[in-house]
Amino acid sequence: MKVDKNKQQHRINEQIRAREVRIVGDGIESTVLPLREALQLAEDKEVDLVEISPTAVPPVCRLIDYSKFLYQQKKKQKEIKAKQVKVDVKEIRFGPQTGDADYAFKLKHAREFLTDGNKVKAYVFFKGRSIVFKEQGEVLLLRFANDLEEVAKVESMPNLEGKKMFLTLSPKKAGQPKKSQQRRDNEAAEANAKAQAQAQKEQEGPNPNSPFAALKDMIEEN
Fold first, then answer.
1. Interval 8-33: pLDDT, tens
2. Helix (H) or strand (E) segment spanning residue 19
3. Is the separation of the CB atoms in 93 and 109 below 8 Å?
4. More confident position, 117 or 178
């Protein structure tokens, strides 16, 4: 068989330097042979002697047509690449005064993104003079992270960049226990109630004992 030496990835046939090699192949029992006998065996079978493990002692060689061998290697690499999970970053946009219905809708989609193995980049966009509500935006993002703690971990805490405050979440590793849908709904309802109470308090005036201060500390520790 004619092989382009510039594209060749393995030693084959007379290029192999070892005195003896271990032979493997389809329908062939693994055995150690002197290189000369191995080359003769390859010639008798009208295939190539391909060195596939040069660092083994003795080196491992396979009896196979080299073109077929390269095709199999390329096919295997494509299959491995196809099985690799592509991680996308999904963006979720909020306003500083996002309503409960809109929040619940976006929370649902974020949970789906994370469950599928994607990252979520949530941000609050402050339009015009709404930048005065930046603390309210931070509270919203911390609440968002807390509501998704069963499927996500915080990759970066809320950070203001220009008119946007970002929070990045990444999916937790597979195999971790998930909460039931009923429990998630109950916790979401509780979080909504807390958020409404917090919003009411903020309208009445600043509260240094806000429960979200403890929530922020808890997320930072995790």
1. 678 999 999 999 999 987 777 888 99
2. none
3. no
4. 117
Report how far residue 59's alpha carbon sits from residue 30's, in angstroms, rounded to the nearest whole number: 12
> In the numeric block, which tokens belong to residue 108?
């649902």
DSSP classification of residue 217: H
Per-residue pLDDT tens for 35-92? Answer: 999 999 999 989 999 999 999 999 999 999 998 889 988 998 888 877 765 668 899 9
Nearest to 10 by CA among 40, 50, 69: 50
Separation between Cα atoms, residue 90 and residue 104, nearest integer Å: 17
Largest CA distance in the chain: 92
The helix/strand/coil state of 172 is: coil
What is the chain's alpha carbon radius of gyration, rounded to the nearest angstrom?
30
Helix and strand numbers (H, E) in the chain are 6, 8
DSSP result, 121-161: EEEEE--GGGGGGHHHHHHHHHHHHHHTTTTEEEEEEEEEE
Tokens of 58: 């003795």
Q: What distance lies between CA 68 and its chain's CA centroid?
A: 33
Q: What is the pLDDT of residue 204?
A: 63
Tokens of 166: 């970002």
Q: pLDDT value at position 222?
A: 52
